[in-house]
Amino acid sequence: MRVDFHTHIIPEDFPDLAAKFGDPRFPVMEKTCDCGAEIFIQGKSFRKITDQAWDIEKRIEDMNNEGIDIQVLSPIPVTLAYWSSPEAGLELSQIQNDFIASIAKEYPERFIGLGTVPLQDVEIAIQEMDRAVHELGLKGLQIGSNVNGQNLDDPALEPFFAAAEKWNVPLFVHPWATLGGERMPRHNFMYMVGMPSETALAAGSIIMSGLLDRYPKLKICFAHGGGALPYLLPRMDKGWEVWPHIRKTEKPPSHYANKLYYDSLVYDPVNLQYMIDKFGAEQIIAGSDYPFLLREAPSGKVVDLLEGISDEDARLIHGQNALKFLGIHEMATSK
């Protein structure tokens, strides 16, 4: 079984919240043709998307052509909008959660849904997590890598992580509002450099904070192979060793990094082998970033290109780890 853990989706009738709330920072989607649309923010083009981002039949056709049994659906990160009012953020979250849940319910053998919550208000976020998981049946949440510039180790967020552990809700951390954005307008560096750097900062914040000592059953997966984190860990371990005054954990950072999950979207088999050697194959989950241009096609291609990987490890990465992470032990498929 092949599971693509990292895919994004948006409703075709995505509402114009910029007009409703009088705030041009909300993303606005304008159809350009039956086959695509353009997302605008503050009147400027943010990105172009194809109908693969909302057309379920097209998505299933692509899955069949690429040998993917199941996709895990999550919102497009720009729609997180943590900067908005809690009320607007909740409405935006509920629209997307209802949409994703409806697809997972209609096509239970092909799609698994992840929801989203307005983390700018932790109490409301916990309430929507409860609804998304326990009423809608979503299997986890996608969250952003920071909340309005506050890293994920901000004390205000701890009740959210406590609730996620209590309810056994897996969390998929995706970079957004990347650090150093003002220095990355050229070369599409936001996607190529900003996002991997942002992911490393988010993962490092979780690791160094002691959060995983306090909530050892918390399940967190980081996008894009953890970004730069795998290559920074030796330096983080050294810092933890030489600066005892910064320590908030019982053990060095690499110990906690081995408890996290990472998607396989690193493109290069050499990088994937490094991750396997560092974290173990059981912590890596195949994901493609479908349907965007930087996606891997098909999902898990880098696994297939890795020489010498055992059949067991390949099966873990291609699908079994995703289902285990999401708490799904068996799932039949039919194409």
From TrEMBL:
Listed EC numbers: 4.1.1.45
Pathway the protein acts in: Secondary metabolite metabolism; quinolate metabolism
Location of the Amidohydrolase-related domain: 3-328
Domain of life where this protein originates: Bacteria
Enzyme kind, highest EC tier: lyase
Claim: Metal-binding is one of the keywords in the record: yes
Keyword tags: Decarboxylase, Lyase, Metal-binding, Zinc
SUPFAM superfamilies: Metallo-dependent hydrolases (SSF51556)
InterPro entries xrefs: ACMSD (IPR032465), Amidohydro-rel (IPR006680), Metal_Hydrolase (IPR032466)
One Pfam family here: Amidohydro_2
Gene3D superfamilies: Metal-dependent hydrolases
Subunit structure: Monomer.
Family: Belongs to the metallo-dependent hydrolases superfamily. ACMSD family.
Name of the protein in its database record: 2-amino-3-carboxymuconate-6-semialdehyde decarboxylase
Organism taxonomic ancestry: Bacteria, Bacillati, Bacillota, Bacilli, Bacillales
